[in-house]
Amino acid sequence: MAQNRTILVPNPRQTGFQIMDVLLTMAIVAILLSIAVPSYQQQVLKARRQATLLHMQVLGLRQEAYHLQHGTYGELGDLEVEPNEHYDFSAENVGNGTYRLIATAVGQQQEDRACQRLSMDQSLNKTPADCW
């Protein structure tokens, strides 16, 4: 009894990836990254800004507590300001009835062009309004 054996030889065009497959995949990934990375970077800037705005509100509460105890608003040194690597904090017009807290963007946060200088005063006037 003779057995018929058929040997299948793979077609060389059907094995592995061709250079066009790899190039097409790389082009798709590059397009997706060109869309995703700027969006991600904007969200990072916005998240840092939001954290700073929250910190400024905490500083405002500390100012009010200081005012209750001392009859005047305090300088930043009196308020235990935590260091922030994305914003520098300062205070202006500190006195018996007024203060203005200012956060100025530093480093990469300066890419947040419209919101580089954030401020809040004792009456909760916040500028720029679009950043709050």
UniProtKB/TrEMBL annotation:
UniProt keyword annotation of Cytoplasm present: no
Residues that span the membrane, as ranges: 22-40
Short name of any one Pfam family annotated for the protein: ComP_DUS
Domain of life of the organism encoding this protein: Bacteria
UniProt KW keywords: Membrane, Transmembrane, Transmembrane helix
Gene3D superfamilies: Glycoprotein, Type 4 Pilin
Protein name according to UniProt: Type IV pilus assembly protein PilE
